[in-house]
Amino acid sequence: MEKTCKICAKPLKGRTDKIFCSAHCKNQYHKYVRYASKTAAIEINGYLKRNYAILWELLGTNKTQVKVYRNILEKKKFRFKYHTHFHINSSNKTFFYVYDLAWMEFSDDEILIVRKR
């Protein structure tokens, strides 16, 4: 079976591990990959910024923790699956962080929001 270029589908000549027929096709491919990853990063960063703003608004500047109902976060379009990292404490509770602010499911309908010390 003859191998073809990833971009233009022309038959490849030369080395057996060749993927592109020319430098132009190689550059086009990598340009597309960079664009796709940059677009995804911009979208995800937007979700993280929005989540951070929502947590910060509910926590305020003076409090270190506050309990809120889950539906309040949902009404503000908080996206629970987007976070920067997580931590499981000694009580086996998972804290999901967005930078220095975190949330934990306190009960089925309550969320505890905390500021990292």
Describe this structure in words.
This is DUF2116 family Zn-ribbon domain-containing protein. It comes from Aequorivita echinoideorum. The protein has one domain (23-115). The protein has a five-stranded antiparallel beta sheet. It has helices spanning 23-59, 70-75, and strands at residues 65-69, 85-88, 94-98, 101-105, 110-115. The model has no long low-confidence stretch (mean pLDDT 92). The protein is built from two helices and five strands, in the order H-E-H-E-E-E-E. It is an alpha+beta fold and 117 residues long. Helices cover 37% and strands 21% of the residues.
Short note summarizing the structure:
The protein has 117 residues and is α+β, with helices and mostly antiparallel strands. Helices cover 37% and strands 21% of the residues.
Content-based structural category: alpha+beta
What is the count of helical runs? Answer: 2
The domain tally reads 1
Helicity range of the residues? 25-40%
Rounded radius of gyration (Å): 23 Å
Total DSSP E strands: 5
Rough shape?
elongated
Kindly report the spatial arrangement of strands forming the biggest sheet: 1-5-4-3-2
Q: Low-confidence parts lasting 5 or more residues at pLDDT below 50?
A: none
What do the pLDDT scores average to? 92
Strand content: 15-25%
**Helix and strand sequence:** HEHEEEE
The first-to-last residue Cα distance is 61 Å
The biggest sheet amounts to: 5 strands, antiparallel
Protein name: DUF2116 family Zn-ribbon domain-containing protein
